Recover the amino acids of this structure.
């Protein structure tokens, strides 16, 4: 199954996908694919329609779902586009300038109960792509990183829900932030960012990435105690690409793999679940999608990332990368 899935990925028209397979799974040189990344159909579409200011127009600016620079850059970084490409560099500068103007980073976040209210996924994605695209040393990136670190909740996460009242941070808001601070620390050596990323990962691992500790939550205005060991949100088991700001098992496992944390036994249940969701032919399918086609009036995408129920290239690639990093699959 492993070899069949790899052969399928190597047949992709996207040089970035072939590069990732050869680099991460097969340990082979792939200079030709690296040189051709910018010619791939997905990368070409993600860079299409760029405006003179580096952005991509549309209502909502960089954060326009899902066609703004914010979301395109996350996808481009996942496809390992070269930072030196002028179009990529212009989009990254546009994104960093935008996030630096937002109130929480220009001034300071609002608070509830003495804790910062901050949508960490927004600043997190912006900081992560800035760090991957050569802007980590920029003072604006440093300010975003410092704000994220200062806004971390006692449990290790972040939240922008004024109704949370310090009970628990949001896994959705925390995942992209952990990725961002890891990338920033890798680019700059910043120890505070590294420690904050590790604290966030500790929160996920405390829950074995998926499960309740028996903490109280509220449902329809009434107190409710979810039993310990229950999956916190069944949707977290579903595989979708892109995940955007949503938390799910594949995305958190991918972030843990980048941080070298997959060896922790508390990640084992999620790895088991990922393996169980594999198709008989060795690939993985999308269980749904957060995006709509490009001609939709509702959160349109510029890319067709694959239909639900069908084998999905990016999900299969990411799943194999995770399982390979965890030592559960090997090649050659």
């Amino acid at each position: 199954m492993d070899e069949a899935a790899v052969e399928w990925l190597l047949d992709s028209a996207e040089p970035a996908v072939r590069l990732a397979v050869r680099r991460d799974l097969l340990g082979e040189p792939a200079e030709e694919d690296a040189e051709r990344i910018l010619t791939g159909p997905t990368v070409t579409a993600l860079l299409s329609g760029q405006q003179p200011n580096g952005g991509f127009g549309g209502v909502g600016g960089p954060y326009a779902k899902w066609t703004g620079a914010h979301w395109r850059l996350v996808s481009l970084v996942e496809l390992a586009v070269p930072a030196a490409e002028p179009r990529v560099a212009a989009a990254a500068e546009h994104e960093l300038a935008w996030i630096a103007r937002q109130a929480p980073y220009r001034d300071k976040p609002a608070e509830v109960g003495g804790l910062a209210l901050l949508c960490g996924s927004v600043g997190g994605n912006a900081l992560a792509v800035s760090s991957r695209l050569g802007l980590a040393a920029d003072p604006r990136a440093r300010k975003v990183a410092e704000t994220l670190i200062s806004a971390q909740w006692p449990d290790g996460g972040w939240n922008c829900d004024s109704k949370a009242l310090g009970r628990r941070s949001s896994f959705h808001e925390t995942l992209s932030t952990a990725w961002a601070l890891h990338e920033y620390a890798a680019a700059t050596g910043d120890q505070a960012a590294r420690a904050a990323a590790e604290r966030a990962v500790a929160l996920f691992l405390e829950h074995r990435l998926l499960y309740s500790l028996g903490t109280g939550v509220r449902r329809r205005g009434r107190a409710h105690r979810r039993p310990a060991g229950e999956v916190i949100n069944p949707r977290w088991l579903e595989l979708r690409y892109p995940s955007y700001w949503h938390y799910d098992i594949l995305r958190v496992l991918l972030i843990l793999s980048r941080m070298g944390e997959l060896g922790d036994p508390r990640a084992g249940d999620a790895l088991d679940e990922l393996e169980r969701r594999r198709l008989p032919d060795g690939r993985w399918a999308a269980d749904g999608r957060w995006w709509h086609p490009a001609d939709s009036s509702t959160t349109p995408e510029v890319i067709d990332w694959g239909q639900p129920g069908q084998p999905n290239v990016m999900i299969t690639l990411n799943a194999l990368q995770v399982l390979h990093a965890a030592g559960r699959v090997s090649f050659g």
